[in-house]
Design a protein that fits this description.
The longest helix is centred in the last third of the chain and has 16 residues. A hairpin with a 2-residue loop joins strand 2 and strand 3. The chain is α+β, with helices and mostly antiparallel strands. 33% of the residues lie in helices and 19% in strands.
C-alpha cells in the first residue's frame, strides 16, 4: 500500500490482460478504464460517456462483456481481461476487425473497440447469429456515425467468414 487519497490507500492489483499477467498500483475504486489506458497504455479502450451508457469502454472480463468505466479496478483482481488490443494475433487482425474494415463499420473510431468486443462476445455465444440477434447483442453500444447498418453487416460478415474457415 502507498499514498492515501481521501483516506484510501493505493493497492497492488494483479490480473491478466490480453494473455499477460499485469500488476497495477491503484486506488481500489479507480476505474478499470483509467488503469487500462493510463497505467497499461492500452488506449484502444475508449471513454465515451463515463456512465456505462454507450459501450465505448467495453472489455471482456472473465468472458463477460463489461463497461470498464463502471468497474472498480479492485474488482478485476485475479480476473482475465481482453481489450481490443488482445483480439489480434500479432500483426494478424481478428476476423471481426477485418470485417469492420471491409464493411465500413468503423468511422470516427470512438465506439469501434466496444462494438467489436460486444460482437466477439456475441459470436462466442452464437456463432451464426440472426440479424435480430446481432442487433440485440450490440444494443448496449451506441454509434453516432454509421447508422449501424455497416456495423451489423460487419458482424454478419465475420460470422460468415468464421463458418467458412
Amino acid at each position: 500500500m502507498t499514498h492515501s487519497r481521501e483516506g484510501c490507500a493505493k493497492a497492488e492489483i494483479s490480473f491478466t490482460v490480453n494473455g499477460e499477467l499485469k500488476t497495477a498500483h491503484a486506488y481500489p475504486m479507480e476505474r478499470l478504464l483509467d488503469v487500462l489506458r493510463q497505467q497499461l497504455q492500452l488506449t484502444g479502450t475508449k471513454e465515451g460517456c463515463g456512465e456505462g451508457e454507450c459501450g465505448s469502454c467495453s472489455v471482456l472480463m472473465d468472458g463477460i462483456l463489461v463497461n470498464s468505466c463502471l468497474v472498480p479496478v479492485l474488482q478485476a483482481q485475479g480476473s482475465t481481461i481482453v481489450t481490443i488490443e488482445g483480439l489480434a494475433t500479432g500483426e494478424t487482425l481478428h476476423v471481426l476487425q477485418e470485417a469492420f474494415l471491409d464493411c465500413g463499420g468503423a468511422q470516427c473510431g470512438i465506439c469501434t473497440p466496444g462494438m467489436i468486443l460486444a460482437s466477439a462476445h456475441l459470436l462466442n455465444g452464437k456463432p451464426e447469429p440472426t440479424i435480430e440477434e446481432i442487433r440485440e447483442g450490440l444494443s448496449g453500444n451506441l454509434c453516432r456515425c454509421t447508422g449501424y447498418s455497416q456495423i451489423i453487416e460487419a458482424v454478419a460478415e465475420a460470422a460468415r467468414r468464421r463458418t467458412i474457415a
